[in-house]
Design a protein that fits this description.
mainly alpha, elongated, 2 strands
Amino acid sequence: MEIRFTRPARRVAMSCLWLVLIAGCSTPQTVADPSPYATEALSAYNQVDVGFAQMMIPHHADAIAMAQVLLETDGVDPEIREIAAAIDEAQRAENATMNQWLAARQEQTVQETAGMAFDPAAIREATATEVETAFLEQMILHHEHGTGMARQAAAQGQSSTMIELSESMVEMQTREVQQMRQHLTR
């Protein structure tokens, strides 16, 4: 049985395209009234930084939804469950940080909504091993798309907070991809 995500990769591709398009026409902006959260008071940022946060939040919401499916499945490998829990925790925290950063700059914040992670009928019929395999394969692809977005944001953004966050995402998700690939080859 093959389990596939119901949300197409189109949203990820559009996110990457959107970042490429705004990079060419972004102009620096300065925060006029920083909130207590703003660690980089009155510093410059650009539309790449804003776009990255606004597109990464729903991207993370999809990863959180995938992790939740695995965490709610009985009989999965404890090491894979640990990876899913770490992804869930890290990406929830990153989403909170990005929304706080956006709010501090009076930019539009983003709801953490995700599509259905897997086809519910396929999940009901799937074994724990099939759910694990689907999670690992799809999360690897998801992380690869996310790290591409994060690398671009780090290279073209101006906000030190967003640059540090995107670099951290690349480092963490690259490490998680390596762990997940090891589990797939067992």
